[in-house]
Write a structure and sequence with these properties.
Radius of gyration: 22 Å
InterPro entries: Ribosomal_bL17, Ribosomal_bL17_sf
GO cellular component, one term: ribosome
Order of helices and strands: HEHEEEEHEEHEE
Number of strands: 9
Strand order of the largest sheet: 1-9-8
Pfam family, one: Ribosomal_L17
Protein name: Large ribosomal subunit protein bL17
Distance between the termini: 30 Å
Family: Belongs to the bacterial ribosomal protein bL17 family.
Strand content: 25-35%
Oligomer: single chain
């Protein structure tokens, strides 16, 4: 007996489909798909969330000195002339950063194997490349999703049957984070 559903696709297509849907589920919180796909997505998503819950507090806070560009009142970089060239002025600032422990770093890299990069486009700037933001889904898993499920032992997703799809009568479901 197979340990997973083949979903009528080659292995590379199946892997890409599942990665895409898991990424969408974690980004949006819920998606609508077929029942068979939802059951496969659930396995992957719950594994990622469990990993995030286990490693959510496994980091050190470190203070580092960082060079930051000085900015004027308009938010533009301050430039000064040095040897006939315009050069940006930098200030040294103390910053606190989170440094992952080795196990959390490993978890982060395992999550990155599954999740695709996500760009968020605001509704006002639709169609403009300038206004897009890269969403760090791994950081979202550690900071937003994991604390929500810290006291829960599994069962992070819920599958709700919606009904049959009109075209091929496949059972459609809503899979969402609980």
């Amino acid at each position: 007996m197979a340990k997973y559903r083949k979903l009528g696709r080659t292995s590379s297509q199946r892997k890409a489909l599942l990665r895409n849907q898991v990424t969408a589920l974690l980004n949006h919180g819920k998606i609508i798909t077929t029942e068979a796909k939802a059951k496969e997505i659930r396995k992957i998503a719950e594994g990622l969330i469990a990993m995030a819950v286990k490693e959510k507090d496994n980091f050190d806070e470190v203070t580092v000195m960082a060079k930051v560009a000085r900015k004027d009142k308009d938010g533009k970089r301050v430039k000064e002339v040095v040897d006939g060239k315009r050069v940006t002025v930098y200030d040294e600032v103390e910053k606190k950063i989170k440094k992952d422990q080795p196990s959390r770093l490993h978890a982060r890299r395992e999550m990155l194997k599954v999740l695709y990069p996500v760009k968020e486009v605001p509704a006002a700037g639709a169609g403009r490349k300038k206004n897009t933001k890269n969403v760090d889904l791994v950081d979202k898993l550690f900071t937003e999703i994991a604390p929500k499920y810290a006291d829960r032992n599994g069962g992070y997703t819920r599958i709700v049957k919606i009904g049959q799809r009109k075209g091929d009568a496949a059972m459609e479901v809503l899979i969402e984070l609980v």
